[in-house]
Design goal:
By secondary structure, the protein is mainly α. It contains 4 helices and no strands.
Amino acid sequence: MQLRDEFEERVNAELDRATATHGPMRSAHEAYGIILEEFEEWWADVKANNAPQGFQELVQLAAMVRRCAREVYHNGAGLTVSESEERPW
C-alpha cells in the first residue's frame, strides 16, 4: 500500500471514529480548539523526533481539519447541492 493510500485510509477511519464518539462540530470556535490541540500534539512529537507518533498526530490533525470543513463550513454554510459537488469534502 502506498503512503498516500495508507494516510487516506487512516484519516477516514479517524474521521469516522471521532464523529461517532463526539458527534458533529458545532462551531468554528470548537473546531479551532480541537485543531489547535491536535497541532500542538503533532508539534510536540516533531520536537521530540518521534516520527511514528507524529504520523498518527498528522492523521488526527487531517481528520479534524476535514471534519471542520465538512461539519462547520459545508453543512453550516447553506451551500446548494451544485456548490457542494464542486468541493471534495
